[in-house]
């Protein structure tokens, strides 16, 4: 295993131990005074009428789909960026074609109103 | 480097990051007070510095209840995720030559990956709380962080093209003659906006917008669990400031003073700038934030990638 990953593993273990230590330490010193009014979801003092996990707007799904498309695009672009000088103009031209295809899709999504949030 | 030195760096980075995060709570309140023409905390100790200790004692001794209607496991897991993922990102940040936990070849990708994982924290917190405000905040956070993560990755493409490496140490070394903020000024602006949105700082703190969503995804949190969200947010500010310094402002490079001092000066400059933004700017509406991202940021980042590539080749 390369040296860097050993250090990062130790770092990761310490970082993961931190919240556990904090929560356990706080548990030892904090008071506990449960009361029935504390056991309700906070809704500005009005008794809650329904479960919170209901339906919400479809916009969030559209954003998730857009994210998948453009984040995968980012992943495809990174290898080009790091080998940029070796690939030269051929690489730039190919990325331009790749982006052009995506931009057609982007314009279509724009026209369809996928980017509107109302 | 030998093992003992590495171990010292590992614990040094952890302790320094957490200490600065705690100190920031005081610094932010003092600076906000300065810019809003008030005093801020000035009673406990010199300049109110011991306010940090007082707040720590307070947060440890506050009642910390797990809501009975909440999904217990994820409710506790959510604040832990934000602290761990942000702390892990610090593993690849080079503070000075040799002072880095692990100089990975994929450092930049590691940072982007860890900041993606941070989304889980707020979404799980909002979902598990079973509170309408929390759920709205969590969904907003998901949409906002996912969107701006795309622009964050794309805005860094120009830096990678110029440096030819993902290793953050190599990126700093590549800026010996010219800081990347000059050829990549647009990239810097886009990265900074995306960074503020990723850390959910004002003016982009819509997931917790206290005037409309009370506290958004952490409305049901109290005591230490709330404290962990708080620490996570301040660690996030330090991380984004460090990344701006490393990627665009030459990291530890600078005349006369030792590298680590230059690094800290630059980082604190950006931290103060973020606090100034909070003091100066109002919050946009959520639809404005999303359409700004997808209609302005995305075309600009894509154009930046192509233009940077073409210009670098033309002048090479």
Low-pLDDT sequence parts of chain B = none
Q: Which class best fits the helix and strand makeup of chain A?
A: mainly alpha
**How would you sum up the global shape of chain A?**
flat
Number of distinct helices of chain B: 12
User: Which class do the helix and strand fractions of chain B yield?
Assistant: mainly alpha
Low-confidence stretches of chain A: none
| Rg of chain B | 20 Å
Mean pLDDT of chain B: 85
Oligomer: heterodimer
Q: What does this protein structure show overall?
A:
The complex is a heterodimer of chains A (118) and B (316). Chain A has helices at residues 3-29, 59-82, 84-112. Chain A has three helices and no strands. The longest helix of chain A is centred in the last third of the chain and has 29 residues, at 84-112. Chain A has 118 residues and is mainly α. Chain A has one domain (3-43, 54-112): Methane Monooxygenase Hydroxylase, Chain G, domain 1. Chain B is mostly helical and 316 residues long. Chain B has twelve helices and no strands. Classes of the chains: A mainly alpha (118), B mainly alpha (316). At the A-B interface, α1, α2 and α3 of A face α1, α2, α3, α5 and α6 of B.
């Amino acid at each position: 295993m390369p040296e860097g990953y050993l250090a990062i593993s130790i770092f990761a273990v310490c970082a993961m131990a931190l919240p556990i230590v904090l929560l356990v330490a706080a548990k030892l010193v904090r008071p506990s005074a449960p009361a029935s009014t504390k056991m309700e979801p906070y809704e500005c003092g009005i008794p809650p009428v329904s479960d919170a996990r209901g339906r919400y707007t479809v916009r969030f799904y559209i954003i998730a789909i857009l994210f998948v498309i453009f984040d995968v695009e980012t992943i495809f672009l990174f290898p080009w960026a790091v080998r940029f000088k070796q690939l030269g103009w051929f690489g730039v031209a190919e990325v331009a074609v790749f982006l052009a295809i995506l931009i057609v899709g982007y314009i279509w999504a724009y026209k369809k109103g996928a980017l509107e949030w109302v | 480097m030998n093992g003992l030195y590495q171990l010292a760096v590992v614990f040094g980075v952890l302790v320094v990051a957490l200490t600065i995060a705690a100190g920031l709570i005081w610094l932010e309140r003092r600076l906000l007070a300065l810019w809003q023409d008030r005093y801020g905390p000035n009673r406990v100790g010199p300049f109110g510095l011991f306010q940090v200790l007082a707040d720590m004692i307070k947060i440890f001794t506050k009642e910390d209840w797990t809501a009975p209607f909440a999904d217990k496991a994820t409710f506790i897991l959510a604040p832990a995720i934000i602290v761990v993922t942000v702390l892990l990102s610090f593993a690849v940040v080079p503070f000075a030559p040799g002072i880095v936990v692990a100089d990975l070849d994929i450092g930049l990708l590691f940072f982007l990956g860890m900041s993606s994982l941070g989304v889980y924290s707020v979404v799980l917190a909002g979902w598990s709380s079973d509170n309408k405000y929390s759920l709205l905040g969590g969904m907003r956070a998901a949409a906002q962080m996912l969107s701006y993560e795309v622009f964050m990755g794309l805005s860094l493409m120009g830096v990678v093209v110029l440096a030819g490496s993902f290793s953050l140490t190599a990126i700093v070394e590549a800026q010996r003659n010219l800081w990347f903020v000059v050829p990549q000024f647009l990239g810097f602006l886009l990265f900074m906006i995306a960074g503020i949105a990723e850390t959910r700082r004002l003016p982009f703190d819509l997931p917790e917008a206290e005037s409309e969503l009370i506290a958004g995804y952490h409305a049901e949190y109290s005591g230490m669990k709330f404290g962990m969200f708080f620490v996570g947010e301040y660690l996030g500010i330090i991380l984004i400031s460090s990344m701006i310094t490393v990627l665009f402002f030459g990291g530890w490079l600078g005349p006369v003073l030792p590298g680590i001092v230059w690094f800290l000066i630059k980082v604190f400059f950006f931290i103060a700038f973020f606090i100034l933004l909070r003091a100066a700017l109002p919050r946009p509406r959520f639809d404005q934030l999303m359409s700004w991202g997808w209609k302005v940021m995305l075309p600009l980042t894509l154009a930046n990638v192509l233009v940077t590539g073409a210009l670098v080749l033309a002048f090479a």
